[in-house]
Write a structure and sequence with these properties.
14% of the residues lie in helices and 37% in strands. It is mainly beta.
């Protein structure tokens, strides 16, 4: 896994309502300063949440069991990208840019999905990152993911 390399989108989920189910989709429309069309979180600083498949695998190893990554309740699962300590960096998801605003801290819903998951996601930003959408556009499973300069 490379912080500066290229990764790809492995999965996308939409959350119908806060606390509601996570629906898998093949593609999603992003709107600048709003978030993902059809997702419960609109506006604010948590417009998109992203998790790393490698960090998820490390959490599963600590748990000693496999858990579906949709249990994390994030919008985008990426591979090949390290999210740890990336506050204020800009991540290109397909043709859209997302500015990371911070770490997505694991909450009580993680332990409802699997006992011990919250603790397993706690170190090293394993719970992922959240950010704001900078561009209108579409993202799809299989799209490239890279870190870019904020000015790009």
């Amino acid at each position: 896994m490379s912080e500066e390399g290229e990764g790809r989108i492995e999965a996308i989920w939409l959350k119908r309502a806060r606390g509601g189910p996570m629906d898998p989709v093949d593609r999603a429309e992003l709107v600048a300063d709003q978030g993902i069309v059809g997702n419960a979180n609109q506006g604010g600083w948590r417009q998109v949440t992203v998790i790393s498949s490698e960090a998820w695998a490390a959490a599963e190893e600590d748990l000693g069991s496999r858990v579906d990554p949709s249990a994390r309740r994030a919008n985008v699962l990426v591979t090949g990208i390290d999210l740890e300590e990336t506050r204020d960096r800009v991540l290109r998801l397909g043709g859209c840019r997302v500015q990371v605003r911070g770490e997505t801290r694991p909450c009580h819903q993680m332990d409802e999905a699997c006992d011990g998951l919250r603790q397993a996601l706690d170190p090293n930003w394993r719970g992922g990152a959240f950010g704001v959408v900078l561009d209108d556009g579409e993202v799809a499973v299989g799209d490239a993911v890279t870190w870019i300069d904020a000015e790009t």
